[in-house]
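In this section we walk through a basic example: taking a raw amino acid sequence and producing a predicted 3D structure, encoded as discrete structure tokens. The instruction is simple. Fold the sequence below.
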Amino acid sequence: MADENSSARLPLLATVFGVLLLVAIIFYGRRLISGGPPSPETLTERALSAASETEKEEATIELSRLGPKASPHLRKLLAESDSPQVRAVCIQSLGSVYDYESMPAILEALDDESRLVRGRAEVAASKMLGRDYGLRRDLSEDERARIVTLMRTEWEALDGSPLLEAFKKTLVTEGQEETED
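The resulting token sequence is shown next.
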């Protein structure tokens, strides 16, 4: 009796396995066919030249998921993209990994024509400088300009200083501890 049940279940198990395999191939097919995830170079090119803003932003988001190793590509996109959404994602990503090489570009983005880009630059620069500067949408233009000038002045004092170098080492050490956990 047990042998009959086992042999009756075999076609059912084969069918279930086949369906699961088919779902996996469909779901992961693009990556399986292409040989894995797109390279940072491919994602950068897609973010610059895709036909729609949505495709550009999606490529940038996918690139940003690569973490610190994507920073050079994100800096390139920040400098070359005409898309506010792409620039905003770049700034947010670069700020989240404390990419101090991008700080001049982030500070420059505080004057971007796009409010979205300016907002992301404000958050990233504040985070990387280690304090809340109180930039809000309701500030007068003069007050905002005063705060932006202060941020730039503080960056100039911090750039290349032993304090910044010590902070960078702390970030590297903390990052290594997180990957070991």
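Looking at the output, two observations stand out. Residues 2-34 form the longest helix (33 residues). The chain has a mean pLDDT of 86. In the next section we compare this with other chains.
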